[in-house]
Structure formats: C-alpha cells, structure tokens
Amino acid sequence: MSPLIEINDPALSGANTILIDARAGQNTHQRYLAGHLKNAAFVDLDKDLAAPVTDASQGGRHPLPNIHDFAALLGKLGITPQSHVIVYDDKAGAFGGARLWWMLRAIGHTHVQVLNGGLQAAINAGIELSTDEHTPTPTNPYPATEGFKNTVNIEETGIAAHDENHIVIDVRETPRYQGQTEPIDLIAGHIPGAFNLPYIYNLDVDGRYLPAETLKNLYTDAIGNVPNANIIVHCGSGVTACHTLLGLEYAGISGARLYVGSWSEWSRRDLPIGTTKR
User: Fold this and answer.
1) Each residue of 197-222: pLDDT tens digit?
2) Which domains are seen in the chain, by residue range?
3) Which residue from 10, 58, 163, 191 has the fewest beta carbons nearer than 10 Å?
4) How many other C-beta atoms can be found within 10 angstroms of the C-beta atom of residue 61?
C-alpha cells in the first residue's frame, strides 16, 4: 500500500476507513472545529501522540507514548488491525499526520495512509469542511504490546553519524542545522557527522509530496550506497523526521529508522555540536 492517498480516492469514505485529523501547535482543537474533513476524529500531537515531557534530555520534546496508552488511544478511535486508517493534518502532513502514520507502521499496522497535501488539498478541491465534532465508535485497545520498532537511541545515532556505512539525516531547516539560529531548543547546531536534507524538500509548491521517482533521486544522491536499515532520520523532536521517513517509503526506500529524541535530546546532553555542513 502506498503511504499516500489522494483527495479524490473513494477509500476516504470507505466502510472500513477511520479518518484522523492529527494537528499540532496552538489551539489545535479550535482549529479542528473551525473546519475538518467530515467524519474525521481529532487527535492532538502533544497530548495523544507523545508522552508527557519531564526532562527533554531523556527522550526529547516529543517522546513516544507508552505502548499501552497508545493502544488504548487507538481503541478509543475505533481502530482495529483490520482498519484502513487515513490521517492528515493542516501542515502538509509534516506534524501529526506523518507522526501517526509512522507510529502505526512501527507497531505493525500497514493499512495506513497520509492524505497527500493535507487539509489544504481538500480545500483546493472544493470539498466542504465540517465544523461538527466527530466521535468515533470505540473498541478494545489495539493488540500492540511489543513497543515501537525501527527506532535508535542517542548512543547508536552518535556512532552511526561517524560510520561511512550509515547515514544520519537531519531534516531541520538549514539555518538551524548550521547553528545560525535555533527558535525552539536551547543550542543551535547539529549532531557532528549528520547530513542536512530539510523535509521541506519533499514537497512541491502546493504542499504535496514530489513524485516518487523525483524523491528517490533526491534521497539517493544523499544516501549513496548506505543500506536502507542504516539510514537514521531525525529532526528537532522526532516529528517532522516522520515526514521524510514517509517520503523514503513512498520512494521505495524502506527500512529507515527514527531517532526519536532528535536534536532536542542531543543538545541537552553536553555532547559535541557541529556547525559545518557535511
């Protein structure tokens, strides 16, 4: 199954489809109520797709939730192993959309897609938005008990960044990577040895993913001959990295892994910091 689905696909209203609006930032619920796809249930990135943060130096600003809490959330949303989950956000999938896609894939749920272009694709297509709260029919907690697969920790990432058989991709904006500015975390710069490939390069001017072949060429130029399983992707806090992980999958490059803690964890550990482009 392609990780992306288009706004005109009839599966969006399929009998087995669970549609999720997964937003991030300020006033997420108010923005949802101001206009969302019909029958889309609301989830919040900070409250639903991440654990509470007590110390960002241990897991970053968006650590993964406890697997049992996530399983309970999926049950509350009516998601079962047979569900076709379609998720979107209002930022071209760069926040909650791709994060929830990755989380579901990481527990073995493969029947999940992200709406290409996000909410804006629906607006551009002239689809009437709903302002009604959609409450899904809950079911039992999702049968997931083994945790999230395809992650790496801070130690593995630091080693991989200096190993020619691995590549660590930093998807943040180039000025943040180069240490010129840091609007969110405490220190500017990057993990020494990491390669900068901003997630925004995945998108066209309309906020849609570039064609798969175009993305494959973009990624291959950066990755070279590194095995897929040795590709590690990170960002500021393990969210927009999922946008590139989705892009990699769409381009046919499967098996890359996520450093969840990302820069928000690394930069708080008194570890080496780079500012020179690789």
Assistant:
1) 999 999 999 999 999 999 999 999 99
2) 4-124 (3.40.250.10), 151-266 (3.40.250.10)
3) 10
4) 20
